[in-house]
Amino acid sequence: MSSHTAEPVCLNSDEELDSACVKNEIKDKKKGVVLLTGKKRPRRLTSSVWVHFDFLDEPDENGNLMCKCKKCGTTYNADSKNGTGNLLRHLKSCKMRKYRDIGQMLLEKTSSGLENRLVKFDADEFRELVGMAIVRHDLPFQFAEYEGIRKCFRYLHPDFKPVTRNTIKADVLKMFKRESQKLKFELGDGTGRISLTCDCWTSITTDGYISLTAHYVDKYWCLQKRILNFSYLPPPHTGVNLCDHVFTLLKEWGIQKKIFSLTLDNASSNDVFAQHLKDELDLVCNGVFFHVRCCAHILNLIVQDGLKEIDVAVIKVRETVKYCKGSQGRKQKFLSCVSHVELDSAKGLKQDVPTRWNSTYCMLESALYYKKALIHFKKIDANYVHCPTLEEWDRIEKICKFLKVFYEVTLAFSGTKYPTSNIFFPNVLKVRLLLKREIESKDHFMRSMAAKMYEKFEKYWSTFGTFMAVAVVLDPRYKLEFVEWGCKKVYGLTQEHDDVLTQVVDKVRELYEAYATICTSSTTNAINVAANSKVQSMKEDLDELMDDFDEFSTKKATVANKDYLDMYFEDALLPRTTNLDVLMYWRNNSVRYPPLALMAKDILAVPVSTVASESAFSTGGRVLDSYRSSLKPSTVEAIICLRDWTFGEGK
Fold first, then answer.
1. Helix, strand, or coil here: 558?
2. Torsion sign (Cα): 330, 334, 339, 344
3. d(CA 369, CA 365)
4. N or C: which end of the chain has fewer CB within 10 A?
5. What is the second-level CATH architecture of the domain 172-294+610-647?
């Protein structure tokens, strides 16, 4: 095997040497690098001017590296020693580039008059728009490097300078830091307290994450939800470690003294977590309503417990759906039956998932709609043996109506906009009365299912029922009258009825007294600040007189505040059918009932669910997708939080 060595190239003169160097420099510049003098490594061309010029293959007669304008073809010396100033000056005066600016002469009519249709290209703003698009639509950072996307950007504007995925990621992290400072100021600027929800997530690589969300009413009396953190949670995931981690996050936001409640699901470690965190925080009334259990999670457990033993009629419907969707021929035969009985085929039969009870409800609902079609299907298909009997159809209808109540209540609890807490007591009362009625049913299956569910329901009622009752008292359509009526429906005129009602009244009074003290303190401080600013300019002989006035006015204010709750109860109820925005009601009455308005601002913002509607019917964990699992925890947090702060949930 022979080896060959490259022969050295002999340059006969200094001109040939210079020409070879120039050609090498041309070749290197076409690759996007330029050779510096000496033996330094080549560096990339960084000036944006090279987007508008092409390098010529041959040097000029003097051996200088040349380039030409892409628009007009004018040639210029492109040697590194000459810089790019002449090229930049040409871009400003290039006549062939002027066609791009014709749009500046096109005017459009706006509300403020005539304005230019086109604006000057801002590269920084363009990069930020690309970054926000990636965040909003869950795109990979590599999106900025797609050749097709870059071609689109170049077509839209010749001044576009391609960016890498690392640049876009750095921009996103900068935006996250900037927006977090804005949110921190907003949280500190509000007058009310903040309620929290906390979820545990995991990645496909089994890394643990914790999602901490703030719920509060802002200074404009609008209910707000913001994801504060989506941070990596190191093991072990015990209640003590959860407490330490969350308290550290709260201190970073500076809101550890502004917390009102924490809503968690029913995991056993969460009880320890809530108790330890409660001891660390400065809470109203010693945190009487600090730990709130997720109602959607509890209702899910209640229904799952009741549906452990499925009725034979439900099994028949499940087999019916499988049979009708088992082959294309049976699908067509079923559609012909639907057409025969003149029903809408667009609704379709729905198949259930055993681990999600809402799918069972949707399956029964769709089967009831096609009841006549399925009965006709049985007549024309001898192999279809799973059609329910008339008696079983009646039972299916009862089960469907029963589950519909739980389905609608769960959707109300787990709405993406997290409604105010005054709606929860009427819905829970509705569920409780339904279970109580079905326990007395003559249908053995319904009675057995309702008994299991009622037992589970009773286990949690004392935990969160009092808070819900206090929240509904702050709804001017219900007040204490609704709580009294609900207790009468559940307990009758018994001692238990009196005890529960007394407990609710005592809690309302306890909270009111706490907020009356807060309201009085803030009013007194304002009076003292105003008085002190005036007293400093007065003579010393007025000091004692003004101090006496401050004490007198404080006592009068205190006496007045004690009567606000009674005044509110004495007012007539608003019509129940009124489409009332309860937050706007308290905003409009904040001067009339100052302590109650402050109290309503905190209590009505408490979420009674930690989950959104899509995961409210499942007991499974929450798992990050493969893309987010591949990112660093800090990047994952920036994307999720920035998306929530900028675009909101579901955008």
1. helix
2. negative
3. 6
4. N
5. 2-Layer Sandwich (3.30)
For 299, other C-beta atoms within 10 Å of its C-beta total 27
Q: Which residues is 259 bridged to in the sheet?
A: 194
CA 187, distance to chain mean position in Å, is 17
| Contact in structure between 624 and 202 (CB atoms under 8 Å) | yes
**Single-letter residue type at 199:** D
Report how far residue 24's alpha carbon sits from residue 21's, in angstroms, rounded to the nearest whole number. 5
Q: 221: left (phi > 0), else alpha (psi -120 to 50), else beta? A: left
List CB contacts of 422: < 8 A, sequence separation 6 or more: 471, 472, 474, 475, 478, 582, 604
In terms of DSSP bridges, do strands 194-202 and 113-116 run parallel, antiparallel, or are they unpaired? unpaired
- Asked if 392 contacts 312 with a C-beta cutoff of 8 angstroms, the reply is yes
Report the run of H or E that residue 647 belongs to, with start and end. helix 633-647
Q: Cα–Cα distance between 247 and 500 in angstroms, integer?
A: 34
pLDDT, mean of each 10-residue run, the chain (651 residues): 43 47 53 46 72 85 86 86 84 69 49 57 86 92 92 82 90 95 89 88 86 91 91 89 94 94 85 92 89 84 80 89 90 92 89 80 92 92 90 89 88 72 88 89 85 84 75 93 90 86 91 87 52 48 62 56 81 89 94 93 89 50 78 92 81 44
Measured between alpha carbons, how far is residue 618 from residues 197, 202, 626 in Å?
18, 16, 21
Please give the structure tokens belonging to residue 129: 């728009």
The answer for residues whose C-beta is within 8 angstroms of residue 371's C-beta and 6 or more apart is: 393
Buried b (16+ CB within 10 A) or exposed e, 617-650: bbeeeeebeeebbebeeebbbbbbbbbbbeeeee
- DSSP track, 130-169: HHHHHHHTT--GGGGG-HHHHHHHHHH-TT-----HHHHH
- Domain locations in the chain? 14-87, 172-294+610-647, 302-474, 498-603
CA distance 175 to 229: 15
Question: The tokens 């580039």 sit on which residue?
Answer: 97
Distance (Å, rounded) from C-alpha 640 to C-alpha 246?
18
CB proximity list for 159: less than 8 A, separation 6 or greater:
48, 51, 121, 123
Q: How far apart are the first and last CA of the chain?
A: 67
Question: What is the helix (H) or strand (E) element at residue 33, kind and residue range?
Answer: strand 33-34
The four Cα atoms 489, 495, 496, 497 give a dihedral, to 10 degrees, of 30
Both tokens of residue 420?
């105010």
CA–CA distance, 29 with 562 (Å, rounded to integer): 82
